[in-house]
User: Fold these one by one.
Assistant:
Number 1:
Amino acid sequence: MSPGTVQSRRRLRLPFDGPQAEGRAGPRPVPLSRLTDSFLDGTSSMYLEELQRAWEDDPSSVDESWDYFFRNFVGQAATSPGISGQTIQESMRLLLLVRAYQVNGHMKARLDPLGLEVREVPHDLDPAFYGFTEADLDREFFIGVPVQTLRSILNRLERAYCGSVGYEYMHIADREQCNWLRDKIETVNPRGYSKERQKVILDRLIWSTLFESFLATKWVTAKRFGLEGGETLIPGMKEMFDRAADLGVENIVVGMPHRGRLNVLGNVFRKPLRHIFSEFSGGGLKAVDEDGLYSGTGDVKYHLGTSYDRPTRGGKRIHLSLVANPSHLEAVDPVVMGKTRAKQYYSNDLDRTKNLAVLIHGDGSFAGQGVVYETLHLSALPNYSIGGTIHIVVNNQVAFTTDPKAGRSSQYCTDVAKALNAPIFHVNGDDMEAVVHVFELAAEWRQKFHTDVVVDIVCYRRFGHNEMDEPSFTQPKMYQVIRNHPSALQMYESGLLELGHITKEDIDGIHNKVSSILNEEFNNSKDNIPNRRDWLSAYWAGFKSPEQISRIRNTGVKPEILKRVGEAITTFPPNFKPHKVIKRVFDERAQMIRTGEGVDWAVAEALAFATLLVEGNHVRLSGQDVERGTFSHRHAVVHDQETGEIHCPLDHIIINQNEEMFTVSNSSLSEFGVLGFELGYSMENPNSLVLWEAQFGDFANGAQVIFDQFLSSGESKWLRQTGLVVLLPHGYDGQGPEHSSARLERYLQVSFHFTTPHGPTLRKQIQESNWQVVNVTTPANYFHVLRRQIHRKFRKPLIVMAPKNLLRHPKCKSNLSEFDDVQGHPGFDKQGTRFKRLIKDQSDHSDLEDGIRRLVLCSGKVYYDLDEERQAVDAKDVAICRVEQLCPFPYDLVQRELKRYPNAEVVWCQEEPMNMGAYSYISPRLATAMRGSGRGGTEDIKYIGRPPSASTATGFLKVHQQEQKELIQRAIRNNGD
């Protein structure tokens, strides 16, 4: 862009405007030049000379911004003898020097509190590089108002960009954002905060420091992952939360690793110290309420979360939530984002300013874990954006034992954030007031621009990875320095005493007060009993724990409602022009609703969503390609073929429907990040059906940490329920090893469900299980299992082995009567209309069938192949039962079928290899059911399926077809054994 066409830059001087920094005093120096933008947009000194001559001939011939510059430059040169010799070329070189500080000044900043880091200062920060000499230091130069000497310009640049804070922001393309930050950075008053603010900051730093030393004294051999070396994090966070509250934030959701977590819980969240001390003394994770004990297996102290209200310095109250998480660093990041997005939905926070996400990272994990980028990448996506996240990196300069040079390829651990145009503030963790300043600046940025921002606290670990570690094994030089290095508290106290801003008596008074409270809370911890409300939010009031039996509820819907919502989901707006194929699909769907026959999978799903919406529930479905559906079956969003406009039928189920009440969204190509996001979303409110669909079931492999560390075990470890639904397309169709198996065996392997019927009643089995795994074979059963997620007083994750070819299979249909709640209809039995955990043989069998020679138990789409083969050979002596719910195993219904067929050989048939699929899970449970019925045990179960294999499936279609044919024949035919 040529300088003469810079229409958007009217102000080329260096004005000083904007509010004075709160708590700072004194005259405000003029900010350094924004004019650098114009000079660096392709301007050469020769062009500048030509531009000046053109201006001298006719000022109106150049852009008004250049007219303004030349008028000021010439005027100042004429009236100030000290700059009479200044040339345009010198101005340009000086502005290049200013720009160099703005871009690379952070490389010269004093960031390492230990002084060990040796960094090469970029040559463009040397005035000599631009031709300036010692003789020029006291010359006056005009680059704005007022005229300044080169020495004063350099001093200001050094103070702004090369002190205890290093700013990276010039990679941001948005000019308004850059100018806002420049004004904030270049007008910082070095005299710091008022005495009153300093006393508040000191009090908070003393709390942070003495908390750690108290724990170290009381529990000498306990791992606590203390914050020693990074204690300034606590006052920084508290000041940031205060500032955020002043700017309109009401709720903050925090995710963080183990280091410093207890300090954050106690001093930032105000979790009662007696609770923390009780957990250290073996109090465990349990909660008592009016109905009895709610307990789990628990987790170590530094993984636990909490939720509290706390007052702010400005007199407001702010709600804080710390999300529980495992040692899998950064895995909690998308969970926090999802929970924040849900809070924004339920509080109608449309501009996303009331609910804030804060993520605390380690330097090694922020640079090394891929989920960090997956999470950052969600930040601006329409259905995942939360209005910006504040990222805090507690930069230990060592990741466990790994030096930065071995842990990342970039200069900084935060460089990944540049991809999202996030500003990054590196700060020396020993400079208490610099830490507070950048934390406040981060809060202001987020509230103004609603995008991510990163604060990188460069600190150290005084005691290594944990308190039992010996860090000098691997970092001997660093720990020689650390042993003699004063704490941030010692330095801050000394600095305030030297300035005369506080007395020794004041400091001793705060120390004594804090120590007294810590000891009092320690004494009270011995009789502490945690309360359930410390763990479960108000939205979950009345929901049952695994120890409390929840009544089973019907899930059928009145026929008139089914018809009404059925019409809504099959109707286009007037003049809307869908693709002709989709038009035909919707016409067929309308026919299904009218006749009540042949309802397919997609319509059943849409009916489940629509009826839940009518009942006032929120429904959210996300994943790769979920709007259309990977297999072009869903068409939840339809595009006008002429205008490109979109229509979502489920947005129009009720009058004045909230536009986000039903959300369906194609996600980024992420599994780990997006599944974590949806998990967090589902945890906020139980009255929401939240679903994540994998493009193919095996794609879930990329999100294994979320399954293992959160979804399968979160309730047991942290007393946190979720009703998240995971749809995993599964089934052997000859598509090769990558897209056949959703790895059913993995979900069953981590299922907590007894191999024998357990508990006072079978009704409790599903509540005692950690999740449910189903492989459903009818649209009606899919409808009911989705509605069941909402229609009960507890929540469990639901893993669905979703179909592929059954989406259009001519036999995989249901009648609308199977969805309703009318007695006598096919879906209604003596218990009512609900999900069928097992579907009995579809032949008209009595309660006792002596003539059946073989009972084939199976799950999923293989049923249709088996039934087709049975009909082909007229094998009336074979019964086929479908186990629709694999976990929890339906002992009662399996035993019912075993009694129905007393002489039948029992077969388990599956498509998957023997070492995969459900066989290993089913075998001991089926054997238990058989023993209970007097039918033998494990040795009496016949397995029919593919043999053990390393690969999930063959990649050759003909081989697949032959394998499938053989296993189906062996399951049905006498001569196939």
Number 2:
Amino acid sequence: MPRIPLTWLAEHTELPAGTSALQVATDLSRVGLEEEAIFGAQVTGPLVVGRVLELVKEPQKNGKTINWVRVDVGPEHNEDLDNPKDPQPGEERPSRGIICGAHNFVEGDLVVVSLPGTVLPGDFAIAARKTYGHVSDGMICSGDELGLGEDPTGEDGIIVLGRGHAEGLTGEPGDDAIALLGLADEVVEINVTPDRGYCFSMRGVAREYSHATGVAYTDPASTVEIPSAEDGGLAVRLRDDAPIRDVEGCSRFVALEVRGVDPAAQTPRWMARRLTLAGMRPISLIVDVTNYVMLDLGQPLHAYDADEVVAPIVVRRAQKGEKLTTLDDVTRTLDAEDLLITDSEGGEGARVLGIAGVMGGESTEVSEGTANIVLEAATFHPISVARSARRHRLPSEASKRFERGVDPQLPRVAAYRAAQLIVEYGGGEIASRITDEGGIAGPAAAPIALPLGDAERVVGIAYTPQQVRSSLEMIGCTVEDGTGDGAEGTLAVTPPSWRPDLVIREDLIEEIARLVGYETIPSVLPTAPGGRGLTRAQRARRAANRALAEAGLVEVTSYPFVGEGIFDALRYAQDDARRGAVRLLNPLADDEPLLRTSLLQTLLPVARRNLGRGEESVAIFQLGTTSLSRGEGSRSPVPAAAQRPSDAELEAILGALPLQTRTLAAVVGGASGPGSWQGEVAPWGWADAFDLARRAAAAVGADLEVRQTERAPFHPGRAGELRVTAADGTSTVIGHAGELHPAVVTEFGLPARTSALELDLEALIASAPAVIAAAPVPTYPVAKEDFAFVVDQSVPAAAVEAAIVVGIGDLAESVHLFDVFTGEQIGEGKKSLAFAVRLRSAEATLTAEQIGAARSRCIAAVDSAVGGVLRA
């Protein structure tokens, strides 16, 4: 985000005296530039100029030599009398005594002194303190301590006025050093939306500040002196061998040479200070000038060592296998869509100098000995730059601006501005010829037809014709009356070159609303129609979540991204459909490029992480989406944006989308609660997983049927599939629950016998009746009967339960399985299922004959349905 020093902003617009950073941020917010942060003055308090009166070197026992210095800091700040602990016989002039470890100054030098009460960068407060046998009444400051960075001369030590950081500066003891060194600057950091790239410059922000406050504005581009120069400078050829969507990658390329620059020339202090405040590190005069002009005007520049460049420069697409070592010392393999700047060493366009609009290469970078340079100022296609920056994970200040759109009229202006600054501070001579390949004017923007009434129609409040015209003219648009049939009351609006985001009439209307004032648009809340609320699905999802939370589980959220190794960790078979995951083209992490196909794939790592943070048990759940790929051949077409996609295109798009559903999953393991003096609590187990699944189903009004099964990642003998039965009698598997496989428990470091469940919540909700009738309160007593049936091991308990309900009929109020028994007494391949049955009539108290008849019907129904025999 751009940082705006107020003193720099004031060069391009009238900033009223005493304006604070907070006020500037408030003004900018009115025109849509949101405040990100405010940085106050880096130094506060009494920072003054001092003259060294006396310097006594005192060797210490640790081998270090310190200076005991008497400093005149002006009548206002000098002590009236010498500190009695540090008497100075014969000293008549009041002064301050300070301990200093630096040795780059002598008696008579003017230095910068922070007196007690000063606060330096990093919230470092200065106070008088006793050290080395003296009371040091302040501190003599270095450039680093004041936030000015390293001394440009390379000299270590404190600041001495007249050289280094303070070259050309002087003063008298007691003068305010904050103002002298420019340390009072306040800075506003703003958030710029992608459509307003022109605000990545002081030029753009100053213009917006002028719009917000009505103060005068001077375009810095208009103040640059552009001499008349002949074409024919360094040869440049624009060539696009592989255009992206038939758009050339470079529409304009300006090259300007400056020769005879002093390699030892230092960046002026004011420029280095501004770069630092704007968030950039000063490097060298040539590099700093290109950065300064970019921040000021918004046009990225690049400087080449002219002695290393072999003409002609060629702008082209990369070839397969080409490599480039960029300025960050990383060798990168280039892509065929990368737009490159090359020269002709080894043949035309043979050597790569940089990735256009992103970063230059090492081979021609400016070094400490560079005296002759070539300045590049170009206009690159935003999409090409954005793709290269993301492809190589190489964001830069240049790419940040190019991908948002740079004023195509700026390259020549920016090149001369940078050349003039380099010559002013580093000497040398600007070449009499310039290369401006691609055309000076550039493509003209097409006028946009804007009916005067459209702003009111879209925004909802009335704008006068004068407000419409003045707002558009304020941002630099050319506004003319429309011509031709039906043009009455219509404006022809031509956007300025620095606003490539203005392409349709709605863009212009947004500017009108913004400049007239968002505060003039009333806030009107729509009236909610009565009788509406949450949908049935929303209520059901919340009910399922609440059921698990009330059971003692904690809801968590996990990212839906997984790595390929998770499938083997969960012991999926090679042909398991859950291996068919959707692969992301641009994943957040290279080791997690897939979307999960099961919620347990991300929930189990969360359980492991919680246990790793000191938890002794786990009881968590999540409601999230899972995605399943439709196969390798499923690719969605990309319809044109100019019109609505056809029905066939929409059908093809929907057919290529992954199969996605909402899933509810839970993991429980370890102790089910805290221990107490009464003893240890029971651990979570596989039965709890089934109980939790039933709780969630009951909350949405559905019933679950459980059948034993084998499915990864569950224990083969302690897992079951969860089924629902539709109105037509068909049974569908919607989930699984049970104890996790021991290998999976070990893989994720979970407590022994950890269990889990996973439900397709959308299918569960769809299976529940839309309306649940309230059951009347019974008024007659219940009759209790218990049955134990011997059946084959393969017969599910749900089938026996269904037979009991059918046999007894309307008298069956509830049927509950309370025991399963196997053993020699039952017989090999057999099991005993014991059910508690409750009978009740809504009409009268049941008689013994009615109960006996119901019992007989139950036994007969179970025998007929599953071959069950009543156990004696």
Number 3:
Amino acid sequence: MKIIQLTLLLFLSNFLLAQNNETQYLSGTGADKTVNWKFFCSAGMNSGKWTTIAVPSCWELQGFGAYNYGHDKYENRINETGTYRYKFNVPAGWQNKQVNIVFDGVMTDAEVKINGKLAGPIHQGAFYQFKYDISKLLKPGKENQLEVLVNKHSGNWSINEAERQADFWIFGGIFRPVYLEAKPKENIARVAVDARANGDFQANVYISGFKNAVEVIAEIQTLSGKTESKFETAVNAPVCNVSGKMASPKTWNPEFPNRYKAVFKLLDKNGALINQYSELIGFRTVEVRESDGIYINGVRIKMQGVCRHTFNPKYGRTSSKALSIEAVNLMKDMNMNAVRMSHYPPDKHFLDVCDSLGLVVLDELTAWQKPSYDDVVGRKLMEEMIAHDVNHPSIILWDNGNEGGENNNLNDDFAELDIQKRKVLHPWQDYDLTNTLHYSDYNSLALDGFSKRKIFFPTEFLHGLYDGGLGAGLDDYWQMMWNNPLAAGGFLWVFADEAVERTDRNRELDSDGNHAPDGILGPYNEKEGSFYTIKEIWSPVQFEKRYISPEFNGSFRIENRYFYTNLNKCTFDAEWVSFSSPDKNRTEEVNSRENLKIDLAPGQKGMIQLKLPENWQKFDALRIKATDQYGRVLNTWSWPVKYPEAKIKELLTETSGEKPTIQETEKELIVKTNKLNFTFSKTDGTIQQIKNGDRLIPLSNGPVFVAGEKKVKQSTHRFEDNVLVIETVFENNDMLKWTVFGNGLIDLDVNYEPNNNCLFAGVTFDYPEKNVVGIKWLGNGPYRVYKNRMKGVEFGLWEKAYNNTITGESGFKYPEFKGYHSEVYWAKIEGKDSPDFKVYIHSKDIFLRMLTPADPKAPARTKIEYPKGDISFLNGINAIGTKFTDASSSGPQSNPYQFNSAKIHGGKLNMKITFDFR
């Protein structure tokens, strides 16, 4: 009996194995797991010899061939080839199976041989999965040899136009995984699913080796394996359609990315299983409604999106599931709900993560700014893209090329090939129901142009370069886009800087000048300042702008900008915080906490109310952190509780001390107080030298007004009791006043009328950059700001060591040290070879400019003018532009200041600062 049972068990086991699909990787599975193959490169680095290479990989990143950026002229390129060889074995049991060899992506033309025989026609096109049936070429149970000849540049001119002359790095090689799939001779080759939000379900089932199949069963299962619905259909052709209706499915959307497992079973006339195939799917309905908007499950959405290339400095276009998870999580952390696959289809695992975590996707047929794929190769590659990607619920629209690269003969083919009939976009064009204009200026957002009835949907906007664009300008843009019903959102250019580690330059990072440092993130996903600006502006929780004054009653007006989520699913944590003084280690104390809840439907506005602690006005700041239902922090907002004057009064409680002494020369006033010696110009009152004992503190040549020269009317000095006053009055009665106290403190009062249409306003000093070690401050931070990028910083206690990062070009240490910092209350400047000193700012809304950021080698329109000098105290600062537009084109926050002196501060701006050089 035991022998019979064992024999039956083995039979059933072998039977089930025969019906299942098996996968055997010949390469590694991604950048983080590779397999070495034999390799011969024809030209460039390490060419002319047989060696080994990691597969998958881009061969340049492995030290072969030559680097090319898409703009390189053909005569400057090496059209190297790579020959790959790999020996492998397959089980003897595969003798009676259909075995396909699958290439997920090869750049660019691939000729494949198995055991010396061609597997099929040469495949052309880099970003598309292709496969060959090699069943008759294999020797099951014995050693086999795979040989692949790869041409970096295609033999098809249209592919080179589309893929090799684009605005991105051009790599070569087998850059995505290679594997074998073994199936029964009669099998389900693939399925195409359309699952709608109302439960309607249909699928086209493609059967290979159609012979004995009579029925297909489709089971809709939860991810844990529970069957929720079952649909059946008879089979009488190689392609059959199975359909039905599922009752009340949990729908997929970017906020609730619910998915199911669709299991397809191919049965013979006896009901025996021939083959089984499964896909993860989502029930959702996408509509593009004319002169209205883009709807998912009946809800009109706005896409808060970014364009993304598949790129890594170490691996080029080769990726991994871990890298995809990291990228999508970073997008979700910025409160994005959409991503555009610019300018080619991505790896499957990236789409899987978008499905799982909730990002809507524009999937794109490759092209760049010129008519690209010809009709034949374009149709073939489109078929491969749609067959590969069709079932991902995250994909809501297709892109036919990019920026004039579409082949209009293929427009209708998308609907023919796609069971879901998703709409097609032409990025950068007014096409069909949408206007996807790229890089419009702010004024065009009024949507009063020639296509004002179209859905406005820029597939690229606010082009980043170095530290410009992206978050800079987004606040103005988004207010306009959010409030216009016909604006469906848009996609920032681009996700990350694309600087490659040059294997021919000792791993030096190269972004091809200003072609590729365009990202919100650095090349290794370092977070630049715009990351946090975007996070705040695109947070689904929006706090109405307000300041905390003594009359604060604990209430905030908020808006729910989710599309599907009630704010009762979020948590709000409020903290009242106190901060240490400049002379103590950086510390903060949380004095009181409160957990808040609010019931607020999507799109609604309401009030959230705090219980004010009895002594709330004694605290320094209020912070509120919002967290979504999945534990992801949406944003943290912070508000100073005390005005600067009140906070500085707490910190500076000393008496004035003894009377300073003064010595006059023909041109200078030399003032001694405590252990300090100050030298002032008698001509204009500027400080010329500061010494603490014998040690020089090299702050000098200030204060000087930053916006235009002012003629001195007179400069005088006098004692008021034990205090020395040095006062300079200018012709328009602007005034600078020093007050020197016997305890060593020194006050600066500034009273002036700014120039009309000025970029910045305030006063500045010289301070040698070589003498700066770091800075500690109380104010907004830790990132620098611009006039059109004020969001994304928090009020708190911050500290930074000096760095000379040029955003997107060199250094890559963030946050950058140099630049403008907002809402500063006090700062401690840490000196090198000179004593530290402190500044206390009594006035509201003052910016501290700390040194001048170095210019990139090719700054374009992101180069901005900074005030002269090195350390400045400013009432106003200037904006930064994008790669293609000057700052003035990006909206009101980007424009220079305009003053009517009769209406602002009685005609004058005021500023008070206390310096402590002790």
